[in-house]
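Hi R.,

Here's the chain you asked about this morning:
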Amino acid sequence: MKRFSNVQRDIFEYYSPDKYVEIEYHGKMGLLWKTDFKKMYLENFPQLKLIKEVHYRYNKNNELIDQMFLLEK
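And here is the predicted structure, written out as tokens:
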């Protein structure tokens, strides 16, 4: 296994800016949540740097948002 010192990770997640929100997944609860995962990563891993962030709204429901962000170590 190789280790890389400078690595970028592109992450695409369900987004909720203020709190954790549970989402039904294949008819089951307790398996999927949405939150501000970028904020969580940056707070827990201070060595990470945000390179880019984009929010995508759903066409049929403008309240639903996905978050895509690029982090670099």
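One quick note: DSSP finds one helix and five strands in the chain.

Cheers,
M.
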